[in-house]
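To close the section, here is one more complete example, presented without commentary so you can practise reading it yourself. The ligand is zinc ion.
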Amino acid sequence: MMNSGGLVSEGKIPVPLKSISVDVQVQGHVVTVTSTLQYVNEEERHLEALFVFPLPADAAVCHFSAKIGEQEIVAEVQERQSARDQYDDAVSSGQQAFLLEESAESSDVFRLCVGCLSPGQNAAITIIYVTELAVQADHALRFCLPAVLNPRYTPAGSGGGIVSEISSVCGSVPYSLTLSVHVSSPNPISKLESNCTLDPLVFLNSEHTHATVNLSPGHMFDKDVELFLYYQNTHQPTAIVEAGVATDQPGSLMGDPVVMISLYPEFPEEVMSSLGSQGEFVFVVDRSGSMDDMMHHGKGAQSRIEGAKDTLLLLLKSLPMGCYFNIYGFGSHFESLFPKSVLYNQDTMDEALKRVKKMQADMVGTEILQPLKHIYNQPCYPDHPRQLFIFTDGEVFNTKEVLDLVKSHTHSHRCFSFGIGEGASTTLITGMAREGSGHAQFITGSDRMQPKVMQSLKLALQPAVVNISVKWTVQDGITVETLSQPINVIFHGQRTLIYAHLKGESSGSSEGTVTVTYSLKDQPVTNQLHFCLKPTEDTGLAVHRLAARALIQSLEQQERAGGAGMEDIKSRMVELSVQAGVSCVHTAFIAINKDSRQTVKGPLLQRRVPTADVSGVYCYQGPYQASLDNDLLLKSSLSGMFSSRRSGSFARCKSYVNAKFVGACAGIIGFKKSLKSNKGFPVQEQKSGIPQKVTALFSSRYETSAVLSGQEISQGKQEVDVELQKDSLLQLVSLQKASGCWDLTPTLAHVFGKTEDELTNQKPAEVNQSVWATLLALIWLYGCKIKDQVEWQFVAMKAASWIRSQKVCEIEVPERLIMSYDALRTFGTAQRCRQVPVRQATEQEILLAHSEEYLEAVKQTPKMTEEQLMEFSKKYNDVYFHQNIYHCAQLAVGATLQLVDSVMKREVRNGMALVRPPGHHSQRSAANGFCVFNNVAIAALYAQKNYSVNRILIVDWDVHHGQGVQYCFEEDPSVLYFSWHRYEHQTFWPNLPESDYTSIGKGKGSGFNINLPWNKVGMTNSDYLSAFFHVLLPVAYEFDPELVLVCAGFDSAIGDPEGEMCATPEIFAHLTQLLMPLAAGKMCVVLEGGYNLKSLTQSVCQTVQTLLGDPAPRLSEHSAPCVSALDSIANVRTAHSPYWSCFKHLDTNSDRSIKRRKLEEKNGGAKDAKPLLETETKKKMEDIVWPEPLPRSSPALRTVVAPPPGVEVALPVGCQVLGEISKSASDVAQKIRDKLFQDASDQKMLQPLGNIISVLDQMKSKEVCNGCVLVPDLNVSVQCSVEHALTSLAKRVLIVFIGDGKLPVDTTDGTALLVQICSEEAEEEKSVNHVSLCLRIGESFTAGFMQIVLGLLLPLAYEFNPYLVLGVVEEGKWKTLLPPVWGHLISLLQGLAQGRTLALLQGYDKDLVEVTAAALSGAPAPALGALGPPKPEDFQAMEKQRQRLQKRWGLLRCTVSES
Ligand SMILES: [Zn+2]
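Output:
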């Protein structure tokens, strides 16, 4: 038919293609694209138009039709040769015919033939294809409409096929493009971005789940159109089951349902954070002539080869020490830097960089096959998995051959590919990554290559996943056939797609399960997804077509692998292609207009329609977007905090060095300014009022705020070109040594805009040059280049670990804040918080807690010399001053006060201030233990003064005693101070007698100072929880604070060298959760200590996530507190029993325990606690490992409420009415009813049961966190809930029942724990899983109720550790008395079962429903008011139960004698 030597369209000959209009329908993660091409023959002769054009590589073309005049012809899929023959016959006999076929060489190139257009005739061709959207590293979904097709490089002598027919023009093409996009998704759409100009996004509904947008007119075909779509909660594993075509035969692919599974595997955090140091990294760089083209056509564009060189620089610097590497360049031939990969060290890195610098796009063609063969022929290094990084503009013709080669080595390497510039072959780039178990990236437009390459490097450093298997579990009668190619790669958080054919009869309601298992670092991992086999409506046949395409691809693979049965494979492909209506390489779409026979004289004239080629197209797309960051944030962590350490056995930190060291860094940053203003530095600098603002974080949907004390330096208008800015980053990176450090050189000084002398003069004498230079480089990166962090993250990681290896700082290090903040950002937590601006505290404010003399003295420190500072520091205990400390301490106080303001003004619900220096040791006239000003004490006094707060609770969970806070408030009954601390009978710092439990406050303040000394190290979660249940919470509720302040030191967590405790970071999620119901939620958490960076950052994240309302993680199983902890708890309770009615009725046998302790001391018991030798301790602490906290996710919807029919309820934010009950839920409800209550024929019961099942199922699928269902009958509802929960989502269910009835719950097998609070004496319980307490209405009802909740229910519940909490209330119970306490009960139980609570309320009580909904949705419950004493008989009933149960439930114990 067509000969290859066609005409290339030139200006004079009219091009028959006039316009392309594209309609894009996005449904979730699947997109259907309809392209309509308008052809007009403007010539006087009959014409054949040929158009070779690109489509996405994985697209399934499923429709092709032509419309001529009013007549529409829909094409069929036929075997390719037969289609071609028919086309030729039709065209030569004067009929109109249309043919669409895929290139055999590259599945992203198609050819369209429009045969026999008579003069003046119009034809509209419509092509429809479906494809999946690709998930990007930033969770965007990428859609690309390829508008550009680059000529593919064809070596001499090879065939070339359709690919060689590509004809393209320089400059714009003579046809236009319109594009409209319609998105619909179950998740709200948060934004849509594009590399092209779009009209504004229009939302079509208030839920933002439907939206539409158009491409602005005037697209020049100079670039592919890329769309980046962002959903809220994008990455949930999903299964879409699509029904087959009713008319097609059952058993065939199209006749049966097909399922599309999207999985997002999650690796444990420890795997993610310990990026390996092993590997062989081979970089393969395209050096063909086309690499000289520009990356894009905007101002400041770089050539592709230059971009690749910059990227190589960054990659080489980012490699871990101890790995192997090599670099290949290829064109018509290839060369490698080293004969084989070499060990990465300073010499080889230098050598490589030298060669990279000289690299040019001088190797002509694009022959990629040979270098790949050479690489694969090299033996691999044992224990160094091979990682290929291939950079190419992808213009090769033999794509399939290349892919086969990559595939045949899939088990010996991973391949990461980068398509550079517009028009890079998607088949080649995505194919290499797919076949090579890696990841593909496209770098187009004005994208910088570096961030994308770094994202891939991050993946490459993830351990390889091996032994991947997929298993299906479905009901009998159904078989599952996987259609997609076997999965050979899994990355953390990256989507894995599976298509499968469901054969056989499904009952329509049953569930299926797909289980993907693999091993990761020799550990077996299982990911599972349950799905309903019932087909979802509304997907058309898109999933079938994608599945067919997946199967075709996998058959193609088999076919190319060769061997027997080739004909079979081919005929299967043709059959499948025809049946599914999806094209493949052996078929084509053919349409013939049978009514169009006309006489055509002479040979038909061919017209090739050009596609755009980017080379040489220069057009301006509006002003170049320069984003210059004038707002440089410098974290205070780097700016001037200093450190010191305790004297005594733990003082092992070279603190003075450290102090000056970090302090001096602040000087440097300030000093940049002083150069500008021609003033000296840094002392005068501070005085000259350099605008050093402080910056704070963050924002929140849930109105939490966290404050980061920091130093923001306004750089003023900088007339620096963006390119130059980028250059300075690369310049800094290029100076880094392979080990990760920098040398102090003039060039480095130049990058910072200084002279070498200026840097050297600032350097403390004790610090060596390289450490100093490396620290400055880190400060500069964090301070000035934070936006490009993704590019320098590995460079900085290397630098930080190098510094650590130099042992300059031991504990009070700047990383404490940097890493905490970084972790908050990494998990997206920081972004959810509201940012609160930070300021310096005023002198007036500091004077609230400190003396004038002391403030005056500290104010002098910025002017002091080193010797004077040293002298000054000697006046205090364990604190050392630096010139910048005054400034930083002002910021720490100011940040704390800003947080108090925000919380008290109700601008935020709660918040955390990340500040240094800490404060709780600082005293009225003395600095102490790292602390200069007492941040939290000042905050309390400030809140009293400015907001007339009457009662403030300060909880100090730092492992040290905050004696400064104690001194400040010990005579003040309006501030209740609670501190637990490592004490070891006064042998631990600060070694004060007044840190013991006997210091209860003085005068009016007696009873308002609670010290809980830990006399042993190694305290666990159980010990901490016991302290909360049996000491802090009962007193706090009785005290009824109006504001809660937390001295949040995390040196009380596991791994901390100071604390040596064993409580895990997750415990802080729970401690925070337990405090949140107090003071109507007004809570300010302020950072104090915490010196193990890992446990500190984990603990900070746990705390902030809880403040934001995320469900707390499950704690591992609990046991009774240890004897030493019980002893302390009992002593505190006894010491405070005269002051707090919750302790009033205590059995005073704790005298005994005091006696015992005395005895123990006498016998030298305290010696046990003597610290180990310094080095031993350190060694011991370094060896401690603990499991990484699991990622915490909060379901999209927090709370659902199912009111009785016809009742409208007002719901708080985060709470919705339960939607329609699904068929499967109502089936389950029916089944359970039939099974349990055969005689209950009442249809009305089915609705509430369906609601219950529905809520539980949504909890299971993590769509909702908790729910409230109103029910007419408790027995039936509870039984149904427990039955369904135990079979589907919970191993153990806790039932809290308010009522007098008898619930049908079996408490004997350990799966259920029933706690009943009733008003009438109940019968004796027989099981340790059944507790009932009688509580009578009266004045002390609230106190009695809370006493039971705190002292009995919470310990029981935490130790039982349920997977579901059922809160059940009998109708009419206690009327108005119940709602307030019920709200607190529900809030306090939120820490359990990852927040999964189902409240079942009998009847309808408006107040109770509202209170329940509010508490479930995380709103703070209103304060209960100060609690009086409980009734003695209530107290005794509770004690009786405690006695009965404490053998089984150790968390109930609160005296030693009981254990
Ligand atoms: Zn501490």
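Once you have examined the tokens, check your reading against these statements. The radius of gyration is 36 Å. The longest strand covers residues 17-27.
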